[in-house]
Design goal:
Blueprint lengths: L8 E8 L9 E9 L5 E7 L8 H7 L3 H4 L5 H12 L3 E4 L2 H15 L11 E3 H8 L4 H9 L9 H18 L7 H7 L6 E2 L6 E3 L5 E3 L9 H7 L3 H7 L4 H25 L8 H19 L4
Parallel strand pairs: 1-4, 4-5
Antiparallel strand pairs: 1-2, 2-3, 6-7, 7-8
Length: 296
Amino acid sequence: MQLNLKRPIVFFDLETTGLNISRDRIVEIGIIKIEPDQKETSYVRRLNPEMPISEESQAIHGISNEDVKDCPTFAEVGHEIAGFIGDADLAGYNSNKFDIPLLIEQFLTHNIDFSMDGRKFIDVQTIFHKMEQRTLEAALRFYCDQELKDAHSAEADAKATYEVLKAQIDRYKEVENDMDFLHEFTMTGKYRKIDFVGRLAINENEEIIYNFGKHKGKTIKQVFDEEPGYHRWIIDNDFPLYTKQIVQKETDKLIAANRKKKEKSGKPQSKSSPKEDKEALSNKLDQLKNKFNQNV
């Protein structure tokens, strides 16, 4: 069967130094790109992660530090990777939780322009888990009657994921051959996650909300009004860069809107009142509480 495509889609897989999206790095990337006319092209690169590969990761993918010591770094080939992907939709196996956020993290770390706007994100593992609940090797065996050769080779895993998705669409009448449907179908949880790691989500009113911690379920605007220092805590701490980027962008909008509102009112900037001074001090204390995670 053929995928019903209105735009290109890439199936990709990453082999990495570990599982921490913020700290770990890519050692191999494999991409299969499918055009609307079904033309296929591939891209495979091993990368020097500029950090040690954990023993646990080496045991899984078999790539050692010695294997990649002379390979290019992501900084050297990141623009090439972004160019190959282009404006394609993104698909993978467990990609919404791992591969996509880690790839975005690398693009942001190296200031490589890679917009997520307008793309569809299709996680083949989610379809599998909703329907059968198995591993990628079992999925390929179940749907395609094939054995996965070179498992945890990035290109082999990406190719297997592509074949599994086509077989899933063939097998299940309710799984439509439509990227909009697959994008929605492979999203999990009550709210649609927008930073992939699930720290931020979209509520039923299409507003960005915090999806964790003490402000879970509240919009960024609500939290900004109640505790202005909270967004600064996120920016300054160990959150993925894409999460930070969204929070910063939204708070910048709120700050600009507040400034415009003041200018429109025509009221001159006056010296702060004791009440305002007290609120400012309270906001600083909130920032310190968040930073050190303790009561002041």
